[in-house]
Amino acid sequence: MPGRIAIDGPAGAGKSTVGEHLARRLGYLYCDTGAMYRAVAWLALHRGMDLNNGAALGELAEKADIVISKPQIADGRQYTVTVHGRDITWDIRTSQVGRAVSTVAGHPEVRRVLIQQQRAIASKGQIVMVGRDIGSIVLPDAELKLYLTASLHERARRRYAEMVERMGEHNPALPSFEEVMQDVEKRDQDDQANMRPAPDAIIVDTDHLNIEQVLDTICQYVEEKV
Ligand SMILES: Nc1ncnc2c1ncn2[C@@H]1O[C@H](COP(=O)(O)OP(=O)(O)O)[C@@H](O)[C@H]1O
Ligand SMILES: Nc1ccn([C@@H]2O[C@H](COP(=O)(O)OP(=O)(O)O)[C@@H](O)[C@H]2O)c(=O)n1
Questions:
Q1: What number is the ipTM of this complex?
Q2: Domain extents for the chain?
Q3: How far is ligand 1, taken at its centre, from the CA of residue 15, in Å?
Q4: pLDDT tens for residues 123-182?
Q5: Which residue in 114, 134, 173, 197 has its CB near the most CB atoms, within 10 A?
Q6: Phi/psi zone of residue 84: left (φ > 0), alpha (ψ -120 to 50 degrees), beta?
Q7: Where does the UniProt annotation locate this protein (predicted)?
């Protein structure tokens, strides 16, 4: 079995959903690196920091007590995220954090700290790690590398459906589909510099595949590695 499985791809491609299912099927640890960048972005916003100050944000990432652990509450969460003991699991999913996270993640000082932490997590053994640069930068020696993708429209459709489900159709805070699509497109652009599909990654176009089909496709690649 491949010990380390890297799953990269743009927002809404299905990395977290598929990554978690796959990890559970294989009995592997699951690590969503996006949550780490989101937690730092949330903390920076919470403290009213200048999002363009890479040195200060790098220091924040280094000193922040961010803990990602198994979910203790059954409210649809994949994991619990705390910062200095405060539960921010859902706070890191807001549009405000979504709009700030690429700027925060764009600073080399922040990436250096989080990449080091991600490698330490992966060194513990069998893991499914999802993000943007896992196969290329974080774990270039990963035994299996996948790059999930889908059209912008499909990824925005999934994100919007997820928000309707979570917030309720009539919630005044629910953004429109067009706004969600603009946010996804903007994040694609902002993430371009740090979005590095590994040259040896297997590309899985999920546009016309449901979650089960994506999982089955990936499981075939896992079996080929056995
Ligand atoms: N192949 C798929 N078909 C339909 N919906 C999907 C598929 N993959 C994921 N989803 C749904 O799309 C949303 C975004 O998926 P997610 O795993 O959060 O993407 P990512 O982690 O790549 O941003 C979730 O609500 C998820 O249930
Ligand atoms: N390995 C990673 C993971 C996330 N990120 C950044 O963190 C943001 C949030 O990642 P995410 O995986 O939670 O985003 P979604 O794809 O789930 O919307 C991305 O848009 C990137 O800016 C990164 O730079 N490198």
A1: 0.98
A2: 1-28+126-220, 34-124
A3: 7
A4: 988 999 999 999 999 999 999 999 999 999 999 999 999 999 989 999 999 999 999 999
A5: 134
A6: left
A7: Cytoplasm
DSSP 175: P
Nearest-ligand number for the alpha carbon of 15: 1
Which residue has the least CA distance to atom 1 on ligand 2? 131
Q: Whose CA is nearest to atom 17 of ligand 2?
A: 11
Same CATH fold, 34-124 and 1-28+126-220? Answer: yes
CA–CA distance, 104 with 106 (Å, rounded to integer): 5
**Does residue 159 have its Cβ closer than 6 Å to ligand 2?**
no
Is CATH 3.40.50.300 what the domain over 34-124 is classified as, yes or no? Answer: yes
Per the CB < 8 A criterion, the answer to whether 26 and 1 are in contact is yes
Among all bound ligands, the one having the nearest atom to the CA of 191 is: 2
Q: Are 8 and 135 in contact (CB under 8 A)?
A: yes
Q: Which of 185, 181, 187, 137 lies closest to 163 in space, CA to CA? A: 181
CATH classification for the domain delimited by 1-28+126-220, as one of 2.40.40.10, 3.10.400.10, 3.40.50.300, 3.40.50.1220? 3.40.50.300
Contact yes or no for 26/219 (Cβ under 8 A): no
Question: To the nearest 10°, the Cα dihedral for 126, 22, 71, 134?
Answer: 60
d(CA 35, CA 117): 13
